Each structure stands twice: as structure tokens, then as C-alpha cells.
């Protein structure tokens, strides 16, 4: 009966029509999104249409459509025109309604009729939401025997039918929308300048309108001669000129067309795509100081208009008792009365940071430094939160203006929207009602968190911790778990704010300079529980590079290796998989004087994790400095764990205490930094916020790259905030035009194999899951929930005596959109000096389900000496 779109569930009559439908209606190709295979039983997805066509010809050439030899078209009951796709059909009906012509409902058993466009949409949305092809009236569906069954890309209707099957107005709108998306992609995704696009539009208009006249005239003349028709050349030329001038591309790009100029294009984008316009707020009119704000409530409505995203957002559930898997398992969420209701409430996480759009070493490094406020909907699962298109822009302001006018003024429009969200909610069209929400927490580095919360922005004073009231002079003497440092409480905060207001001479009072504007305005957000720690800056750009520098100094003095040897080892190590992407950089010669090895978070994380494999055999067992680094490696694995239990939190607390003791013993002349003190709060903060990787700044910081690229390509500083915010919203509108949520399973290449040729144990496991299975789909590489699995990778599978078991991937089986691994089971022995596991093949083969792995993250094994070793990336909690 046709081909169904996997995104919008509409139907097309041929495979070629469906491919064109994907390209024009959903614009899924060429923008980093994945288009699923047209055949429902095939799990493959593709980034380009060429890859999809190759796949279809290679793997599905002999397969038939749902009903071979039959073409279904949609017949309009008002004018008897035909449309080849369901979407085009309803667009055609809409054209009748816009002219106030009466239209009957096209579904079985429904006598509804109207001449009002919005009334028809409401009726269809309420009564026929989950319709299928079989629900249409018989007179609507027109079936025609096809002349061939090869399912080529050429529509299978004859020429006479094609002349009446296509509604010109609907076809023109489709071409216009596709062309608009193309120009929007060039401007917002590839950062092509407006001047360049104007030149492109001008040339395309000339080619489609004037330069094509002669070619079209020849085509018409040739067609007439082949059909033995004689027509005057003047008429043919006039016909060719009219065809070229009336072509949808010519009409769209001409002087009077909606895409003919930059102004008209922007107007068209804002009207026809889901564009949320940034608003400019004036700080000082005389000095021309302002900032750009993107309304949060409007953006929420646009995001949740997508039903797939809404389903993901409103299907949240807490974990079982004793497990911490997300922010919803932390006490900060559970103790908030706002969420203690049956109806779903929205949780917002905002991120505040400063970034340079110019060369940080150049003369303009502070002139255009920008403070950005992003936000993400915390109700979404982590795999969707991590997508950069899920991170929304709220505010852009010059950093100097933020310091001059303070956050209370700059954040005012954002706070008003959040207050409205708390008290009244936002209307969600797919639910048909208002949904309330609030700000869950503010993610920022230590400096940003202190700046927005009203604490001192210097970490050399007496009270520098936002979690407790401990004096910094006592950090060297007492641990946090000793109970010496009282935690900050809401009652204490009220007293401190009152004292600062009554007596300015007390500023700062217990580290507080002024009240937190977010706490002042919002009823369900508080300073004490609203600022989680930042693992990225505390550990990976703080403690880890500093302690590595100190330890490397000792290793060099003891002649375990030289700096040149160390750098050669780091450079020549055979990194695999994601380790190759994030491989550590060489150690700079001046690291001792700087007291840090530098590097970004990913590089430092990779270095501390792989260091035992790099130089572990060169360091004697029992070396106290080496034991310090190994303890730090244990802490890193625990902190970045995506799941925690009460036992793992207690173990982390013990490891942090052990690390502190070892650090003071090995480096008695070194003082503990404030970040060492913040680290000691982590066990309690995990209970409060859930796994800390759910509230770190790692993914948010990647958002800065977009704005830096825009500035580099446009080189426009006249109103840089307006340029950046508008370009960002154009980019978001472009991505929101696609109705799909990125699928959890992505496969690009599969092969089919009979079950009978597999290992007997694998056959038994597969048939236990699907008794009628005769053939399986095998792949060497798949991506599931953002994690890439490849043959040869090492998986964690269960545990024995508290230690994880491992298996090596041989092949990957895709069965009913689920992933299974055919693996070799490995025996593992823990090598404490290297904090790694030695692997040996057991000769046994098994089938593992991806959902039941002990840890979803695949690892790489390395040959060190004569041993095959694997080291964990994060601590594995027993379920």
C-alpha cells in the first residue's frame, strides 16, 4: 500500500517519492542527522542520501514493497486532484480551506466538514491523531497498476496522470521550503556570510530564469518533434521563457520572492520555521550598552512541541532505593516540595560562563569577552541532554557590563520567565495544558558560581567554600568528614544576608558580599542547594594537572625516566578508540615552574587513567609518590561514575581521606588548595545532586565553539551580541525543523547470516529470545545511546568476588532494535601496581545483551610488557 515515513508516519506511493519526502520535508541529510533505512526490518541509518541509495541497491535490491505492483495516490474530494504523499495531500486540502472552500473529513465513519483551516486542524488532531493508511475513505485512495516493480526513483505514474496528480501550489511550497532550508543551513550551520549568500541567490536566479531558457526551449522542441508535433518557434520560445520565469526557484529567488534578499530571507525563516527571536534589553542607552535575551518560555514551547521529545521529558522515573543515577535521585530534588506532586514538573539547569570570541592573547581579548547563560531541560535523558542542540541559549552579555550592572539586572528577564514558570507554568500544546517548572540548579565553574551567587570571587580569603562555613586556614589541619566545618544552611544564609544589608562594613560576611538574585526571586530555588560542584575544573583542570606536575618532578629526580623519554612514551603509545581522540599532550619543559602540566580536561583525564600503562613498569612497587597518583586515579574513577550506591559513596570518602594523608606525607611543604577542600565535600554532594557528571560543565563548554566559529567566519563586531544570538537561533530553528529525535541505535553497515552457521551456544541463546529466528543481522560497529561499539573492544560483564569480569567483542547482533554482542569470555586478574586487569582468553563464547552490561562504556586493551591489560575509565557499581 505504499511506503511509510518513519519520522512523521505519512505515506508515499514509491520508494523514490519517500526519498524525496525525507530530503525536502525533514531535511535529514547533510546536517549530521541520521536517516533510517526505508525497510522496517533493517536497523541501518545514514548521514547522506548517497549512502542510503548504495545500501538499498546492495542489500535490498531484490526486496519488494509492502504490496508490489500497486501504487496508491491520494485523491482530493473537492477537486479530484491527486497527491503522491500524505503530507502533500493535507497541504493541498489546506489550500482549499485557506480559500474558505468547504472540505469533508477524509477518514472512515466521519461526516465532519468545514471551510475553516484551524477548525479542520483541531478536528484532525483530536479525532484522527493515530490514523493509518487503512483509515482513509475508499474514495480517497486511488490504486493504479504499476508498469514495473523495480521501485526505481522515477514515479510510476504515467505522464497523463502526473499532469493532474501534482498540485502546483503545494509543489511550489515544498520547493520553497526546501530552498529556504538550504539557505538557512548555509547561513546558520556552515557560517556562510550574508554577502556570499546574496551572490549565490543572484546567480541561482539568473541560471534558473534566464540562462536556462535556451536549454528548456531545446527540451520542449525535442519533445514535440519526438511526438510528431509542429509548433511555431516563437511559441516554443515564449513557453520556455514562461516556464523559467514561473519556476518555483525563480519565483523564490527573484526580486519579489520571499528569499530574494537577506531581509526577506530572515522574515521567511522567522515566519515558517520554529525561530525564537532574541530580545535586546538596554542597560545604558547613552553608552550603548545592552544584552540579548532569548525567552525561555517560548523556547520551552517550541522544544516540547515535538511529541517525541515531550514523551522523553515526561517519562522520568526515579531509581530504586540506594542507587543514584540522576539528579532525580538526589536529596536536593526529593526534598523540594515543588516536586512532591503527582503531576510532572519541569526542571531547568542553567549554565553561566565567560568566553573569549577573539584571540585570548590579542589586543581585543577583554573587549569582546562575553558572559553566556545556557540552559537545558533536565527532564530529558542524559543521551539527549548531551546533544549540543538540546542546550539552549538564554542570554549573552559583555562581561564588563555584567560586572558594572551586576547579575541582578542582567538576569532580570530570565528571572521573570522562571517566576512565571513556577507560578503559572507554560502551555504545552501536545498536552493541551500548562506545565509548571522551576530552576533546579546553576552549573558553573567556581568563579562563575561565586559571582552569580554573591560570594567572594577571590579564593585567597578566609571563607571561600560555598558548601560550608569552614575557615580556609583550617583546611590543612582538618578534614571535612571530621565535622569541624559546619555546612551552610538556609537559616544561616538569611542571617548573613541581613547582616550584610544592615552593616556594609561587614562585607564580606562569611564569604558573602550580597544576596543571590536567583534565591531572592524564585520560591523553589535556594543558594544553599542550587550550586553543585564542577568536576571538570576541580579535578581535571585543577588537582590532576597540579599533582601530576609535582609527582613528575620527583620521578625525574629519581631518574625513573627523563622528560624526553616520558614525552616519547606519551607520543608513541598505541592509543585505540576514544583514547586516540583524547590522547594526552606532551609535558611542557616549564611544568615545574608553572606547577601544572596544563592541558584540557579530556587530555588530563586520559593521562591519569593511562599513566600506569605508560610508565608503571618503570616505577618500583611501593613508591609513595606512585601510590599517591594511584589513589588519585581511584578517586577520578569514582567521581565520574554514572551510577552510585551508598557503598560507593562511602568508598569515595575513604579514598579522598587516604589521598589527603598521602599527599601531606609526600609533599609536606605543599599546602592543600581550596579545590582539595571542595573535593572532600563530593561524597555528600553526590547524595545531594546524584552523579556529579550529570551536573558538570563538560558539555556546556562545548557550546562556546559555535559562537567562536560565527565570529571567525563573519568577522562582524558592530553588534556582536545580536549577531551571535540571531545566528544561534537560526541554527536551532534549522535543527528543530526536523521532527525526529536522534535514534538510540545507529548502524551503517550490516550483513545477514543464517543462525545455523553460528556457534551452537550462540544459536541456543538467540533462539531462546526468538524461537522462529532463522537469520541474524551482524555488524562490526554500532552506536547505541551515543556509545560506539566495535569488534575488538572490551566489555565489562558482571563480577566475580567483587571484581568485574570482561569479554571481547567478536561480532554485534542487531535483533528487534536491540544490540547483542557475540563475545569471547576473558579471565581477569587485578594488577594493583598498575591499577589494571590482566586478561587471558578462556576459549568460551557467549551472547551478551547491551542493556545488561555492568558498564556501558567499552574499553580498549593494551599490551604492556608481555601482559594484555585493560584499565577502567570509571568505577563500576554492582547493581
Please give a structural write-up.
The chain has 879 residues and is of the alpha+beta class. It has six domains: 3-166, no CATH class; 174-272, no CATH class; 279-454 and 516-532 and 698-736, no CATH class; 460-511, no CATH class; 535-694, no CATH class; 745-870, SH3 type barrels. The protein has 33 helices and 31 strands. The strands form nine sheets. Strands 21, 22, 25, 26, 27, 28, 29, 30 and 31 form a nine-stranded antiparallel beta sheet that branches. A six-stranded mixed beta sheet has the order 10-11-15-14-13-18, sandwiched between helices. Mean pLDDT is 86; it is low at 27-31, 64-71 and 144-166.
N- to C-terminal distance: 47 Å
Mean pLDDT: 86
Overall strand count: 31
By DSSP (H or I, 4+ residues per run), the number of helices equals 33
| Overall morphology | globular
Strand content: 15-25%
Q: Major sheet: size, sense and barrel closure? A: 9 strands, antiparallel
Poorly predicted runs of 5 or more residues:
27-31, 64-71, 144-166
Please bin the fraction of helical residues.
40-55%
Number of domains: 6
Find the structural class using helix and strand composition.
alpha+beta
Cα-based radius of gyration, to the nearest Å = 31 Å
Brief synopsis:
The chain is an alpha+beta fold and 879 residues long. Helices cover 41% and strands 18% of the residues. It folds into 6 domains: 164 residues, no CATH class; 99 residues, no CATH class; 232 residues, no CATH class; 52 residues, no CATH class; 160 residues, no CATH class; 126 residues, SH3 type barrels (Roll).
Amino acid at each position: 500500500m505504499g511506503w511509510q515515513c518513519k519520522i512523521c508516519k505519512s505515506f508515499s506511493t514509491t520508494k523514490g517519492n519517500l526519498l524525496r519526502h525525507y530530503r525536502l520535508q525533514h531535511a535529514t541529510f547533510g546536517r549530521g542527522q541520521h536517516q533510517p533505512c526505508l525497510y522496517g526490518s533493517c536497523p541501518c541509518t545514514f548521514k547522506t542520501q548517497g549512502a542510503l541509495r548504495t545500501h538499498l541497491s546492495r542489500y535490498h535490491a531484490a526486496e519488494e514493497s509492502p504490496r508490489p505492483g500497486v501504487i496508491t495516490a491520494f485523491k482530493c474530494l473537492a477537486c479530484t486532484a491527486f497527491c503522491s504523499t500524505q503530507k502533500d495531500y493535507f497541504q493541498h486540502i489546506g489550500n482549499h480551506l485557506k480559500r474558505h472552500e468547504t472540505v469533508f473529513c477524509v477518514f472512515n465513519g466521519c461526516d465532519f466538514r468545514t471551510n475553516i483551516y484551524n477548525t479542520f486542524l483541531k478536528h484532525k488532531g483530536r479525532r484522527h491523531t493515530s490514523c493509518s493508511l487503512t483509515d482513509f475513505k475508499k474514495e480517497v485512495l486511488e490504486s493504479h497498476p504499476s508498469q514495473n516493480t523495480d521501485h526505481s526513483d522515477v514515479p510510476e505514474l504515467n505522464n497523463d496522470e502526473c499532469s493532474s496528480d501534482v498540485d502546483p501550489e503545494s509543489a511550489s511550497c515544498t520547493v520553497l521550503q526546501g530552498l529556504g532550508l538550504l539557505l538557512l543551513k548555509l547561513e546558520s550551520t556552515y557560517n556562510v556570510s550574508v554577502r556570499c549568500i546574496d551572490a549565490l541567490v543572484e546567480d541561482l536566479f539568473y541560471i534558473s530564469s534566464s540562462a536556462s531558457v535556451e536549454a528548456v526551449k531545446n527540451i520542449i522542441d525535442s519533445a514535440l518533434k519526438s511526438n510528431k508535433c509542429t509548433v511555431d518557434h516563437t511559441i516554443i520560445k515564449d513557453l520556455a521563457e514562461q516556464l523559467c520565469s514561473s519556476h518555483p526557484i525563480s519565483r523564490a529567488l527573484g526580486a519579489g520572492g520571499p528569499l530574494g534578499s537577506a531581509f526577506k530571507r530572515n522574515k521567511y525563516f522567522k515566519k515558517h520555521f520554529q525561530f525564537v527571536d532574541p530580545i535586546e534589553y538596554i542597560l545604558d542607552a547613552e553608552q550603548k550598552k545592552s544584552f540579548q535575551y532569548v525567552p525561555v518560555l517560548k523556547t520551552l514551547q517550541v522544544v516540547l512541541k515535538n511529541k517525541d521529545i515531550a514523551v522523553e521529558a515526561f517519562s522520568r522515573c526515579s531509581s530504586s532505593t540506594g542507587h543514584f543515577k540522576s539528579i532525580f535521585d538526589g536529596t536536593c530534588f526529593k526534598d523540594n516540595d515543588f516536586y512532591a506532586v503527582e503531576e510532572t514538573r519541569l526542571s531547568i539547569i542553567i549554565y553561566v560562563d565567560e568566553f573569549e570570541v577573539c584571540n585570548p592573547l590579542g589586543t581585543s581579548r577583554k573587549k569582546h569577552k562575553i558572559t553566556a547563560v545556557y540552559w537545558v531541560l533536565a527532564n530529558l535523558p542524559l543521551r539527549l541532554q548531551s546533544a549540543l542542540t538540546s542546550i539552549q541559549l538564554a542570554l549573552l552579555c559583555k562581561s564588563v557590563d555584567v560586572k558594572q550592572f551586576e547579575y541582578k539586572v542582567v538576569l532580570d528577564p530570565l528571572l521573570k520567565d522562571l517566576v512565571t514558570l513556577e507560578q503559572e507554568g507554560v502551555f504545552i500544546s501536545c498536552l493541551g495544558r500548562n506545565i509548571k517548572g522551576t530552576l533546579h540548579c546553576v552549573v558553573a565553574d567556581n568563579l562563575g558560581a561565586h559571582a552569580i551567587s554573591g560570594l567572594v570571587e577571590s579564593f585567597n580569603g578566609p571563607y571561600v567554600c560555598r558548601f560550608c562555613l569552614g575557615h580556609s586556614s583550617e583546611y590543612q589541619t582538618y578534614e571535612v568528614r571530621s565535622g569541624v566545618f559546619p555546612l551552610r544552611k538556609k537559616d544561616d544564609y538569611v542571617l548573613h544576608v541581613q547582616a550584610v544589608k544592615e552593616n556594609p562594613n561587614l562585607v564580606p560576611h562569611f564569604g558573602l558580599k550580597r544576596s543571590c538574585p536567583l534565591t531572592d526571586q524564585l520560591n523553589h530555588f535556594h543558594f544553599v542547594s542550587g550550586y553543585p560542584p564542577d568536576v571538570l575544573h576541580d579535578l581535571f583542570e585543577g588537582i590532576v594537572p597540579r599533582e601530576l606536575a609535582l609527582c613528575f618532578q620527583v620521578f625525574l629526580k629519581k631518574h625513573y625516566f627523563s622528560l624526553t623519554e616520558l614525552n616519547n612514551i606519551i607520543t608513541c603509545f598505541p592509543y585505540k578508540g576514544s583514547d586516540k581522540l583524547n590522547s594526552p599532550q606532551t609535558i611542557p619543559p616549564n611544568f615545574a615552574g608553572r606547577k601544572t602540566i596544563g592541558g584540557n580536561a579530556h587530555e588530563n583525564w586520559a593521562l591519569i587513567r593511562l599513566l600506569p600503562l605508560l610508565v608503571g613498569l618503570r616505577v618500583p612497587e611501593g613508591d609513595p609518590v606512585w601510590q599517591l597518583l594511584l589513589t588519585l586515579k581511584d578517586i577520578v574513577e569514582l567521581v565520574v561514575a554514572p551510577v552510585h550506591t551508598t557503598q560507593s559513596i562511602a568508598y569515595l570518602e575513604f579514598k579522598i581521606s587516604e589521598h589527603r594523608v598521602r599527599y601531606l606525607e609526600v609533599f609536606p611543604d605543599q599546602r592543600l588548595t581550596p579545590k582539595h577542600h571542595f573535593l572532600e565535600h563530593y561524597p555528600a554532594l553526590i547524595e545531594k545532586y546524584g552523579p556529579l557528571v550529570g551536573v558538570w560543565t563538560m558539555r556546556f563548554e562545548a557550546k562556546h565553539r559555535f559562537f567562536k566559529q560565527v565570529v571567525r567566519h563573519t568577522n562582524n563586531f558592530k553588534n556582536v551580541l545580536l549577531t551571535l544570538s540571531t545566528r544561534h537561533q537560526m541554527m536551532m530553528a534549522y535543527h528543530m525543523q526536523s521532527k525526529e529525535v536522534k535514534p538510540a541505535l545507529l548502524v551503517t553497515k550490516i550483513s545477514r547470516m543464517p543462525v545455523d552457521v553460528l556457534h551452537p551456544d550462540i544459536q541456543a541463546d538467540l533462539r531462546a529470545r526468538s524461537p522462529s529466528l532463522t537469520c541474524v543481522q551482524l555488524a562490526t560497529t554500532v552506536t547505541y545511546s551515543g556509545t560506539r561499539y566495535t569488534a575488538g573492544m572490551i566489555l565489562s560483564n558482571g563480577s566475580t568476588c567483587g571484581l568485574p569480569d570482561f569479554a571481547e567483542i567478536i561480532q554485534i547482533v542487531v535483533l528487534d532494535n536491540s544490540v547483542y554482542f557475540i563475545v569471547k569470555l576473558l579471565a581477569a586478574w587485578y594488577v594493583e601496581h598498575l591499577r589494571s586487569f590482566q586478561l587471558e582468553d578462556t576459549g568460551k563464547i557467549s551472547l551478551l545483551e547491551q542493556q545488561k552490561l555492568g558498564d556501558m562504556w567499552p574499553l580498549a586493551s593494551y599490551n604492556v610488557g608481555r601482559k594484555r591489560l585493560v584499565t577502567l575509565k570509571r568505577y563500576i557499581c554492582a547493581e
